[in-house]
């Protein structure tokens, strides 16, 4: 796991005179401000830090120095000091003299007590220097830092002051801003300032749009717009009861704020029976942002090795926390067969994921779905990784009735005009997705005939549909057999069988 940068942590390194420090940062300005704060508050008597880049010299009006000369200049200064370097990583692989100057600093051939801090997007340190560097990561601001940023800004920003009417609004705004750097939050504020009606809802909407852009740039994750809740799901009493027990034990407010958030669930079962909808219902029920990870893109090589891609994904999810991390069809990236096909890469991905699931401290609820759970390694299913493994079966009579009602109500139909229990009997063996398509198909037929939809339209579509329970009967039986003693039924234990 990466070592996260903190005021106390960098202060100790500077007090100890650590010669070479490399900081991976997403925001140079914010990291530089932290280093200045370190010099002011953590290290007694330390001079103000000096900075160098390709466009900025250590002292105004001084002679322009090459990277090697800049490093040597810092090393030759009297006494202790903190020197900040930008852009050096663009030169140190090609410049032998620069590497030698850095080794001289590391071996303290100059006066000891100086710390040279190098800011970079990615710590790609030359191999002969790697043992000499302490590498830290300054990730996105955490909840406390974002809250402090808003509290400081609200004093001189009348628009922000009008948006925030109390502590509850501030908590809501901080939650919406998590996972963003302060420049992105500032951009959202500027957009709200020029809107006709600046309010909390519009600011949150801009923050969510910023999150979508950030996640889109990662290429392996997406921010999912989600308006579903447990009421959007027909049946699934077992999983709903599981959610309700945790809300009763820890309170929904605590979990929304990331306190006492469970570790996660693995949802397996028949295709089209609502696994994805259940994930959305969990996120919506707990009022948490939902982020989807595409396991296939972890292996496509666009973002480096599979392990580095997965590390980027988990790091981003932790920055967004509290949130729900949705790993759809997890067997596509972590499977027993994958070890044979991908070799060492698949083993390393599994190893990193298991370690992260076991040790993660950030409130990230992992909701993984799988169609072929028998492909997953046994290590992944061990207690302690996920809180529970749920099995989603074909809906029973009661669940099918609820699903018909949900989709008819969603389309604005009066339920009194339909005999939903009759429709549920006729759709025996249908999955939730097939029931939805039956209603959607009936709507299209009635629209084509330019008349209102009726019961018979749905019955006609049901009669023409061959459900997956027939076309994939053997596969469904195999899934049911696997899950019988290994998973908890999402529908609950007491089901009416029809």
Explain the overall architecture.
Helices cover 49% and strands 12% of the residues. It has 498 residues and is an alpha/beta fold. It has four domains: 7-138, P-loop containing nucleotide triphosphate hydrolases (Rossmann fold, 3-Layer(aba) Sandwich), CATH 3.40.50; 143-218, no CATH class; 230-392, Rossmann fold (3-Layer(aba) Sandwich), CATH 3.40.50.300; 397-428 and 432-466, Helicase, Ruva Protein, domain 3 (Orthogonal Bundle). The strands form two sheets. The chain has a seven-stranded mixed sheet. It has a five-stranded parallel sheet with strand order 2-3-4-1-5, with helices on both faces. It is elongated, with a radius of gyration of 28 Å. α1 (7-15) packs across α2 (28-41) and α15 crosses α16. Residues 338-342 and 494-498 have low confidence and may be disordered. The chain has helices at 7-15, 28-41, 67-76, 96-106, 143-154, 158-163, 167-177, 182-193, 200-218, 237-250, 252-256, 275-285, 295-298, 306-320, 336-342, 344-359, 378-381, 397-410, 420-426, 432-448, 455-464, 468-471, 473-483, and strands spanning 20-25, 50-52, 81-86, 114-120, 134-138, 221-224, 264-269, 290-294, 323-328, 364-370, 388-392, 488-489. α4 links the parallel β3 and β4. The longest helix is centred in the middle third of the chain and has 19 residues, at 200-218. It contains 23 helices and twelve strands.
| Strand runs, count | 12
Mean pLDDT: 85
CATH topology of the largest domain: Rossmann fold
The portion of residues forming beta strands comes to 5-15%
Estimated structural class: alpha/beta
Note poorly predicted spans.
Answer: 338-342, 494-498
Q: Give the strand line-up of the largest sheet.
A: 6-8-9-10-7-11-12
User: What is the count of helical runs?
Assistant: 23
Report the radius of gyration as a whole number of Å: 28 Å
